[in-house]
# Entry
Amino acid sequence: MIADARAALHRLLLEDPQFTADIAALNLGTTGKPAVPQVLPGNRRFEQVPQEKYPCWHDDAGDQQGGGAGTIDGDSAGLTIGSHCQGWVGEILLALVWHQQDYDTSVAQTDGVHPALVRLMLRNPSLDETCTWAYLARTDNDRGVRHPTHVAQFVVRVHYDIERGPA
# Structure
């Protein structure tokens, strides 16, 4: 289910050796040194996070859509009536928040996060077997609105089944 997929994504963000190396190479730490961002579950207003927590990932469950006719941006989920499971398409909303005074450096950092996250998802298409498959579906950036705080936002699309369980 989506909670299991989110937990698996947390582990990967913190423990996948290639991903943590890619992110550390971006020098997102407030001192300009390599840092592996911590994960803060539950999306919150970025202004409420103290700078000593930077860099950090925020996440939350996004929209969930079930049934054969339901879609989220063109992805369909399967529906099995009178049987054992129903297919779902869900979203994990993910944001990376960090502090960077230098504009050029922040652009390079923003440019580096997206491909690192795509490669992480390509290496782990089922999020440790917690879903049928998952992929990075969208990315948005704050375009420097909060400078020197920067935010890159992502949507991870997850396909999964919920089983009926014992009768």
